[in-house]
Amino acid sequence: MEREIAVDTSVRVRYAETDQMGIVYYANYLVYFEVGRTAFIRQVWKPYAEIESLGYVLPALSASVEYKGSASYDDLLTIKTILKDYNRVKLTFGYEITREDGKLIAIGSTLHCFTDLDGKPRRMMKELWDFLQELDSK
What is the CATH number of the domain that holds 93? Predict the structure, then answer.
């Protein structure tokens, strides 16, 4: 990839996302990554539901999170989602989650592959490949 493609998405921490200590439960950061990734795909290309209607899904192959701080109920978070790398069959997304005060609280990544609705590997649809190539050339 020649240039970084990134999208910021805001979420407010709901009470149900916190643990007994009043901080966001650690597994919810993966949910925030999904929120960011879905918004990224919608903003950069098209709604994920439309991708599924074309017979493609993007299951996760791996995920990682590194916790740098914490968030609490009602905190406003910004999820920065970055397309880090891609090829004809895989996409790697990076994430940075910050609180409203600018404090970095989590970083991570997810790796996804393209499959059909039955889980069989597929190449990225030509329309998306061409679109990403055009973005890279700007």
Answer: 3.10.129.10
Name the catalytic one among 8, 19, 85, 101.
19
CB 101 within 8 A of CB 77: no
In terms of pTM, does the model score above 0.85? Answer: yes
Domain assignment of residue 106, given as a range: 5-137
How many structural domains is the chain composed of? 1
Residue 7's alpha-carbon distances to 4, 12, 55, 108, in angstroms, are 10, 17, 25, 15
* 130 classed as catalytic: no
**DSSP 8-state code for residue 19:** -
Tens of pLDDT, residues 52-92:
999 999 999 999 999 999 999 999 999 999 999 999 999 99
Burial of 123 (0-12, 13-18, 19+ CB in 10 A): exposed
